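Troubleshooting: if your tokenizer reports a length mismatch, compare your output against this known-good record of 376 residues.
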Amino acid sequence: MRPIQMVDTKTQYHKIKEEVDKAVLEVMESTAFINGKAVQEFTANLNSYLGAGYTIPCANGTDALQIAMMALGLQPGDEVITPSFTYIATTEVIALLRLTPVFVDVDPQTYCIDPSAIEKAIGPKTRAIVPVHLYGHPAEMERIMNIAIKHGLYVIEDNAQAIGSDYHFSTGQRKKTGTIGHIGATSFYPSKNLGAFGDGGAIFTNDEALAAKMKMIANHGQSRQYYHDIVGCNSRLDSIQAAILDIKLKHLDEYISARKEAADHYDNAFANHPGIVTPYRADFGSHVFHQYTIQVDPSKRDGLKEYLSTKQIPSMIYYPVPGHKQKMFEQFGVESAELPVTDALTQRVISLPIHTELDSEQLKYISREVLAFLNN
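Known-good structure output:
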């Protein structure tokens, strides 16, 4: 059996090596390393795939969120509602811009922000909501957008873990996650479902004026060379990464299918075990399984991780410390927030290997060892 990786980017690369190497060499020959043809082509192709109005590439997913908030004109002291149960980048940029994070709980099934909790947290200083499509499962965007419209709030989707996921509206309409809110942001970190060979990110919107502003912000705030109309930053997706991403974009649906097949195997293996809660799949959207995250008894979670390590099976805990308990946010006095679902999940979740290159032998071995420990 091949060694098991949490994310096997090497094997994935070897399957598309010829395409990728050719694309990278073309960039090298062109010497158009910044905003070259490869960036323009990838941007257009990603925009078409997502059905977005406008796509602006940038340097990474954290920059994408920051640029989005800058473009919306959020001011110091404005409150932004966001889940505590997410990667720190989502909330880090809120504090970086001197905005105020308002942490709310997540839905116990989807692990995404709870729309009911959003409504309860809205106050006179609330300006925006940042739902996170966590682990590859979409947040309940129809309800979230209805709340935002009712209260005149902006919605910025953190789509770093769910690119390619479909959201199904009650009307029958379908949209890709990241294209529903006022702005969507994503990351192309190598381990993502659509991952580069380095850092990268992108921002999406259906608003032409917002698109123009975000494009300016990402390029030093300039409308044309050497004319800087607003304060911006330097956040660019380089041509080599764009060329690689354009190749991988063609395989994204195939990659998602492979992840779903692996998830199906796990679901079937764990279906009858009373001590395992497998990932929920809501009927309002498609889970693209950036992570396959189960819940187990808190008294067994850390032991399971240690046991799997002895069996050469990697696993991860996403995330052991929620945002409202991070030291960086002590200044906001949020550590006393009552978020029972979030607090419970940090003690119960563990993510198993899931990626495009898992084979049946590996999946059977992982499943067998998880059950062996929990049945002991």
